[in-house]
């Protein structure tokens, strides 16, 4: 069985060792696996090559279309497990796209990885709309959950599913990360926190931006808001270090 991965260059799966750039594990050495395909379409998405293929008319502000053949690659679950095991970090971050769309195959891959490298810490990054496959859920140590606010361009009936948000809020392994572009976005976050009783220590706010300049401009007022409301701030470390590039 195979998983569908994004690519760094045509035919080359996006598997790499780096530092986690966001959220509760920021700064930790990690191996990243980026899967392809997403059920949402954020207008500011920095990995649109995982979903906005030629013929997909969902809006993105860059208005770029990517050739599927050059930006997707299938990889056997066992081969992927061995590729992860061969890299140094003892932390795996499975990202996308929306990785939980491939939950059953991920479960088999992580199980194979545990045979090769027992004790690997496994994180899954998700847009919050897809429930973890039961076989995968028991293998995941941490979920980085990023519900999409109105400024993402996704309608709330697709992006903010009450049953899913309630389940994530009740899961102590789930850390919420909200992308913030304008101060007006904060009202939406606070309403969601109250509605779903999201604990402040598990709620991160992150400035939207694909360059250091934009991130820094938004960081000051956003950090102030976090300190006033008992929330956590997260930077985008990888952007500062390497820019908006694949495989970092």
TrEMBL record:
Positions contributing to S-adenosyl-L-methionine binding: 44-46, 97, 146-148
Pathway terms, separated by semicolons: Purine metabolism; 7-cyano-7-deazaguanine biosynthesis
A Pfam family per the record: Radical_SAM
Record's catalysed reaction(s): 6-carboxy-5,6,7,8-tetrahydropterin + H(+) = 7-carboxy-7-carbaguanine + NH4(+)
Residues annotated for Mg(2+) binding in this entry: 47
Record text on subunit structure and interactions: Homodimer.
UniProt name for this protein: 7-carboxy-7-deazaguanine synthase
């Amino acid at each position: 069985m195979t998983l569908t991965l994004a690519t760094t260059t045509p035919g080359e799966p996006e598997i790499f060792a780096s530092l986690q750039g966001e959220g509760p594990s920021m700064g930790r050495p990690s191996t990243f696996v980026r899967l392809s395909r997403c059920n949402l379409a954020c207008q500011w998405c920095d990995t649109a090559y995982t979903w906005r293929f030629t013929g997909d008319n969902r809006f993105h502000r860059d208005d770029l279309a990517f050739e599927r053949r050059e930006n997707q690659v299938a990889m056997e679950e066992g081969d992927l497990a061995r590729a992860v095991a061969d890299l140094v970090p003892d932390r795996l971050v499975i990202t996308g796209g929306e990785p939980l769309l491939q939950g059953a195959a991920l479960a088999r891959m992580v199980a194979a990885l545990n045979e090769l490298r027992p004790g690997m810490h496994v994180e899954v990054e998700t847009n919050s709309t897809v429930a973890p496959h039961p076989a995968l859920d028991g293998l995941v140590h941490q979920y980085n959950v990023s519900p999409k606010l109105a400024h993402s361009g996704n309608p709330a009936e697709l992006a903010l599913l009450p049953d899913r948000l309630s389940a994530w809020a009740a899961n102590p392994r789930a850390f919420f990360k909200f992308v913030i572009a304008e101060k007006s976005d904060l009202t939406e976050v606070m309403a969601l926190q109250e509605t779903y009783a999201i604990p402040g220590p598990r709620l991160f706010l992150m400035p939207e931006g694909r360059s250091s300049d934009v991130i820094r401009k938004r960081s000051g007022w956003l950090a102030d808001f976090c300190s006033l409301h008992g929330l956590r701030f997260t930077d985008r470390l990888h952007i500062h270090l390497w820019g908006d590039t694949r495989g970092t």
